[in-house]
């Protein structure tokens, strides 16, 4: 649609740039002037993060007016970032899978299972914390491998495969943990490395945790992998049209399997950050995390039909949910209206996606 | 062209699906620098023949030779590695990806040096440059933006992208499966011109088509497939369309003047 966005990074700044330059060029290329509606459609079609970015900016403005300074305080805004760390990290895994036209209902269960494994290895078996962490990450990889095998070998629909493994992983987690939590003091005494993600530092009155910084680093790394490596192009192509990708010579089974394994490892990293955030290990944590991660991805503008979307959209999606929850809480609104609002956001986001995906609007 | 030896030939190909014999001792040959059309009624086995040549189907019996040497493909990827590019009827393009991304899908170029080897970084600039060059060589540069999503292109332009991809990578043979079936008159014309341009570049082309006027317009020879085997090879200069249809349907038996 424009000449200006060639391979440019799809970050928010680039959208501003495209927004400023695109309108005039579209008119010059097309013989007949495009209607305003079509121009807007084309813009959002070419820039999947634009719509969620606008919503984020708008929601920040609304809560600024509604709640005022308490909302805009650096401390509060950095708190939102901390609050979305876990869901945001799971959202990275979920985005990868949804881009391949899949869905992963087991991300939360993998996270809890991995956190229990990390905790027990370090506390009950007395392994060095770094080894316990590594075994936890390996657990995530094995869970992802199982999901990927069910999807690629048994050809199960991802929804069904991960619905099954969600229950399996959660049951394994209850069995392995004996339904017992590991106390924060015990972890602090023997394996402080597991709480690393909770370590915080202050900057300009804001409070950042290592966990939220690691989440942002992971977003950048996955953005790079999706946009600047052949693997990333293959992930998009596989989700876009699997048969076409196959005919173009992409080994889609291998791509899918790798996506599920990477997602499993990212879930295990989320487990590590979860221990950092809560301090303890609880087998009951994160039961709804799978749905929250899907919410972040969908609000972030990634299409459930695969092949379309961007990883930073998910970060923005998680932040939108975080801003709404935080802002509504500060405004003294009952918790049930937070859920109500998130529900509305999902429906609006998917409706917008349906509209944007149409090529001939 | 009779003086040279075939680029690609097949003899006695047999493929059975249960009790159905799709290929019944089929022969095939393709000479350098020619457009060979393959025609046949529905169910005559021409698509099975093409799939056998492009690696998508493994024949039960028979031999395929490339430049006289026997070859066996167990997947389309192997056929492609040997220089046989196929443009499928479904086009095999990824709608949401850009033109350059599609041209290089599955064989992306990486940046030289440590960026490419360690960080696996794509050389987008080089891929875009080559894509632009390939499209302009084929006279397709009405496409404005090389990163435009393929789904925003017209049917003919998409076909152009698919053909450009096969031309860019097909070093030996390009197989086109019904390239004009979904196109309007104007766009069909452009695709037929593309086919001629590819031939003029020296690439032998196999064209599968139902459209007799198109076949007679661009083909040098016409392979008529009937009941799972080659019924005849005719030339547009010596035979008419009704001859071709008569052979195709079995109305005429031809002791083939195989060229």
Can you give a write-up of this model?
Chain B: It comes from Litchfieldella anticariensis (strain DSM 16096 / CECT 5854 / CIP 108499 / LMG 22089 / FP35) (Halomonas anticariensis). Chain B: Keywords: ATP-binding, Nucleotide-binding. Chain B: This is Sugar ABC transporter ATP-binding protein. Chain B: One of its GO terms (molecular function) is ATP binding. Chain A is built from 17 helices and 2 strands. Chain A is mainly α and 361 residues long. Chain A has a single domain, classed as Orthogonal Bundle (ABC transporter involved in vitamin B12 uptake, BtuC), CATH 1.10.3470. In chain A, helix 3 runs parallel beside helix 16 (311-330) and helix 7 (107-123) packs antiparallel against helix 8 (129-152). Chain B is globular. In chain B, strand 9 and strand 10 (229-234) form a beta hairpin. Chain B has helices at residues 46-53, 76-81, 99-103, 114-117, 124-137, 155-169, 185-200, 212-218, 241-249, and strands at 8-17, 20-30, 35-40, 61-66, 69-71, 84-87, 173-177, 205-208, 221-226, 229-234. Chain B has 9 helices and 10 strands. Chain B folds into 2 domains: 1-83 and 172-259, Rossmann fold (3-Layer(aba) Sandwich), CATH 3.40.50.300; 90-169, no CATH class. At the A-B interface, helix 12 and helix 13 of A face helix 2 and helix 5 of B.
CATH hierarchy, class of chain A: Mainly Alpha
Q: What is the CA-based Rg of chain A, rounded?
A: 21 Å
Largest interface: A-B, 30 and 35 residues
The amount of helix of chain A comes to: over 70%
> What is the CATH fold-level name of chain A?
ABC transporter involved in vitamin B12 uptake, BtuC
- What is the strand tally of chain B? 10
- Model regions low in confidence, pLDDT < 50 over at least 5 residues of chain A: 1-32
What structural class should be given to the helix and strand makeup of chain B?
alpha/beta
Characterize the overall form of chain B: globular
Distance between the termini of chain A: 14 Å
Named at the architecture level, the CATH assignment of chain A is Orthogonal Bundle
Portion in beta strands of chain A = under 5%
**Proper CATH architecture of the largest domain in chain B:** 3-Layer(aba) Sandwich
CATH superfamily of the largest domain in chain B: P-loop containing nucleotide triphosphate hydrolases
Total number of helices of chain B = 9
How many alpha or pi helices of chain A? Answer: 17
Total E-strand runs of chain A: 2
- Shape of chain A, please? globular
**Annotated CATH topology of the largest domain in chain B:** Rossmann fold
Indicate the proportion of strand residues of chain B.
Answer: 15-25%
